Amino acid sequence: MEIAGLVLAAGAGRRYGMPKALVPWHGRLLVQRTADVAAEAGLARTVVVVGAQAERVRAAAPELTLVENPAWDTGMASSLRAGLAALGATAAGAAVVLLVDMPGVTPAAVRRIAAYATPSALAMGGYAGRRSHPVLLGRDHWDGIARSASGDRGARDYLRAHAGEVRVVPVGDVADDTDLDVPAAHA
Prior knowledge:
Elements: E1 2-8, E2 24-25, E3 28-29, H1 30-40, E4 45-50, H2 54-60, E5 65-68, H3 76-88, E6 92-99, H4 107-114, E7 122-127, E8 130-138, H5 142-148, H6 156-161, E9 166-170, H7 183-186
Parallel strand pairs: 1-4, 1-6, 4-5, 7-9
Antiparallel strand pairs: 2-3, 6-8, 7-8
Helix pairs in contact: 3-5
């Protein structure tokens, strides 16, 4: 079964002061680094959803498969819907969702999550009792997730409603779920 990567990178990064997709990180942009993680983990294809400064991201990272979300300013949910819609036209039976502002997520963490991929799977990375990314969404759930996603909540409400089906996969020993909300977090 084909497993796809879905990178959410459409936000303006208001608190950060710039779109996080364009933030330099160890010689690459965060958007490139996140797509690299998906590729290194062995995912079949990766779609990157962009919005704020989409043309700058496209110019800076032309090697990536980008999907533009014209409603990016309404929150993460619209980006998740745009990405799932794009993947709906592929043979992918599941998608691993990665956030552009979590550079501590590693290929090893993605591989652990992806190992549980089926069209009916739901899984999240586990970090010492916290649930976080990466998140695995089996294709059977994509329509329900798209319908329930709103604002900046993404798949959160759907995953809570289906808590009994969500596998939490420990990844804290190979990844870090810190997100870069402000430049100080980058330092």
